Amino acid sequence: MAFEGLSERLQKTFSKLRGKGKVTEADVKEMMREVRLALLEADVNFDVTKTFIKKIRERAVGSEVLDSLTPAQQIIKIVNEELTQIMGTSAVSLNKAPKIPTIIMLVGLQGAGKTTSAGKLARYLKDEKRARPLFIAADVYRPAAVEQLKTIGQQIDVPVYEEGTTASPVDIVQRGLQQAQENKNDYVLIDTAGRLEIDDQLMDELSQIKALAQPNEILLVVDSMTGQAATHVAEGFNQRLDLTGVILTKLDGDTRGGAALSIRAVTGKPIKFIGSGEKLAALEVFHPERMANRILGMGDMMTLIEKAQKDYDEQQAEELARKMQENSFDFNDFVAQLEQVQKMGPMEDIMKMIPGMGNNPALQNAKMDPKDLEHLKAIVYSMTQKERQNPDLLNPSRRRRLAAGAGRPIAEVNRMIKQFKQMQQMMQKMSNGNMAGLEQMLGG
Ligand code: GDP
Fold first, then answer.
1. Burial class (CB in 10 A: 0-12, 13-18, 19+), 129
2. CB neighbour list of residue 443: distance below 8 Å, 6 or more residues apart
3. Burial of residue 169 (number of CB atoms within 10 Å: 0-12, 13-18, 19+)
4. Domains by residue range for the chain, with CATH
5. What is the pLDDT of residues 36-55, one digit of tens each?
């Protein structure tokens, strides 16, 4: 997960302040030194760090903090606001042409994830905007690029305009745009060539394509794992092409986060999307305020809720809410819940979005193997309906019967029953609107 180091260091710094009733200027100075080091270590651009620290210091030594009864909270609030600010305040949506098609040109260095991001973006447009996009394959230098785009096109049912690798990219784009007109595609995504580094020839070609296509969006696809280099690349492309935005890829890896925090401040151009995996569904709209919350370990309930809405079976969710209220959550629901949660992605990533869970040691063990789920199901299916509804019936001899029935060790049966009871209690607490209950259960 991205930002791990930065997140840990910032939270450690702030936890030192938490116990203090009164914060002095010397405390603020010491804290700022630590924040500065944390940012530089996360590969945040030097000038960005400097400006950031200056702003925080000005605000933190003001009466807003020093006279406050809860100085630590005040400082965290300020850091949160300023982090949000350097990443761009709020999400910026895609530009749209006044009349179809909206033309989106994707540029970037080789390996940044350009072709994959073209696929993700097309899928996003289809899903969210009911769009009918067309790809234009204008990367003629990397022979596999055209094939890769065709494969992606087949997967998500998006047509690809291509002429192999012999024609000139500018000609391909021109004819591709004609086809989009004829077929009334509402979006056109142009996949352009990349190189290992920025060179004049590449930039000239991209400028020519830009002049011809007059795109509504020129999105730079940049790899967050490259840290400072990503910021330089963004600067270079922006100078030559005047970008409209950035897609920051590979934020699922253990990137230190510097690119996410620097690009907007250095180029003035917004990060519009982030890539969070190799799959075509792994694209998220970039929300600076949510990212700041995640960095500060305050969770990201909004993204979690949106994810849940997308992946969760609505009827089941309603049913669960009712059961939580009636306190009738049983083993059948337990299995259904585990299945639902599994659909949302790796457990450890989901838990991190819950406020206060970011650096919870219990999370280290939150990984769940799909095989484990099968084992749990086997145990539940060995129960009678009465037992499923009332775990108190499960005395030692019944537990032995379940272990034998499911072919699992008795210790596993005991563990599962314990987990179930905890989950039941947690549900009760949550239905009373007490999120801290969840934290307690998992931390305890
Ligand atoms: P291009 O040369 O810029 O077109 O790059 P590709 O689209 O071929 O991507 C290069 C590699 O990065 C491929 O192996 C992709 O699967 C991978 N990739 C792209 N985006 C992401 C992402 O957000 N997360 C991860 N983990 N891998 C990604």
1. middle
2. 360, 361, 362
3. buried
4. 4-87 (1.20.120.140), 102-296 (3.40.50.300), 303-443 (1.10.260.30)
5. 999 999 999 999 999 999 99
From the CA of 112, give the closest atom in ligand 1: 3
Q: Which of 136, 148, 278, 283 to mutate to test the pocket of ligand 1 (most atoms within 8 A of CB)?
A: 278
**Using CA positions, which residue lies closest to atom 27 of ligand 1?**
278
Instruction: Give the residue from 281, 284, 292, 212 showing the smallest Cα distance to 257.
Output: 292
Describe the crossing of helices 314-326 and 331-343 by its angle, rounded to 10 degrees: 140
**β-strand partners of 271:** 246
The question of ipTM being above 0.95 is answered as: yes
pTM of the shown model: 0.74
- The per-residue pLDDT for range 354-378, each reduced to its tens digit, is 655 555 555 545 556 667 778 888 9
**254 in ligand 1 pocket by Cβ < 6 Å?**
no
For residue 272, what is the enclosing H or E element?
Answer: strand 271-275
CA distance 375 to 357: 27
Query: Is 164 a pocket residue for ligand 1 (Cβ < 6 Å)?
Result: no
